[in-house]
Amino acid sequence: MEIRGDVIFEDVVIVPLQKMIKKRAAALLARAFVEDSEVITIIRKPRRVRQRILQSHYSILISSFLRYNASACVLAGGELVGVMLVCAPGEEPIGVKELARFFLRMLLQLNPGSFRRGWVSAQDDEHHRPCEPHYYLSTLGIEPKRQGNGIGSVLLKYLIERADKENTAIYLSSTNPKALPLYERFGFNTISITSPLGVPNHHMVRNGIK
């Protein structure tokens, strides 16, 4: 089945998140975040095991985000190179059914310490979301070999254009210091920095157009 989307430049196309690329998207996000400092802190396992657990986690998360049309992917030459999981105002990042599946699978895959650390991290993020309506950029992952090629910018521009049309803020959090200049370049400001697991987590907001 052909995947259709908006051509950005040359062979780069942005498409909605969809079920037919769910498996590839989960694998990409696992590769993108397997060396993330907070992930390593939460899942204290060898890289191969950590990546397998992450792929399982993202498979469930993507299933929840499939219902939301703000999420998107980037294809370059037909290859999936970027994934963005987003909730619009009034939408929740994970539904009750997916939450139950997530907890059951994580309990089977993680030891109690890893499970507790993951919960602490998730709650830290949730507690710093703005009170006003906002887009929640839950996850932005780029294929490691394509990082630095502008794929992240393509996805951010796509989301910002939508949010600005609605004069709505965007919230995200990042434990990756290398990503902060990119977010700042697109108008995100750090509203707080926390480190519940010892890894600095930047909570950032880009306000809507006034």
From TrEMBL:
Which InterPro entries does the record match to this protein?
A: Acyl_CoA_acyltransferase (IPR016181), GNAT_dom (IPR000182), Trichothecene_AcTrans (IPR052523)
Q: Give the N-acetyltransferase domain ranges.
A: 12-210
Q: Which domain of life is it from?
A: Bacteria
MF GO annotations: acyltransferase activity, transferring groups other than amino-acyl groups
Q: Which Pfam families match?
A: Acetyltransf_1
PROSITE patterns linked to this entry: GNAT (PS51186)
Keywords from the UniProt entry: Transferase
State the name under which the record lists this protein.
GNAT family N-acetyltransferase
